[in-house]
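Notebook entry, structure prediction.
Reason for the run: the old model in the group folder had no record of what sequence produced it. Starting over properly, with the input documented here first.
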Amino acid sequence: PLRLALDLNFYAGKKDHYKILGLTLPSDWDFYIRSFFQSGKRYTTYTRIEREGEQTQYVANSLDPYKGLSQSWRWVDFSFKKYFRPMGVRLAIFAEVTNLFNDKNSDIINPLTGRAYEFGDPVLDTWNNPLNPDPSPTSPFPFNPARYLNPRNVKLGVSFSW
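New structure, fully documented this time:
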């Protein structure tokens, strides 16, 4: 897979007073932003077989494994810290956000769609289909929250060092 990442870090020291659009920014802060992209992962596709009067079946394309390419991943993370120095202690107030735009990045791939399962998607006949539930299920519905990478996460806090 192809991976691209762009990391930018801006720092203003105690004596730095930068101006942006005519506004003077405070001193002693740190801003970090990261943008990440990865092309989709390979997976084995399936062929749909329909027979009149029977349930639809899917057969793995084992002669051409890893033919499919799943949905790509992308996310943006950022953090901001503002430093203060009262009484010889370095105090920082910070905000960190991972997956800023809450992108749904598929981790467990439905081999019929190339992305994580969503209600209404076709599923393999070995899966318990929520649209046609198994009366005596041996497997759960495909709503595993791990089918996606982590959603947005926000951390706010205070740290200090001496």
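Summary: The radius of gyration is 24 Å.
The old model has been moved to the deprecated folder.
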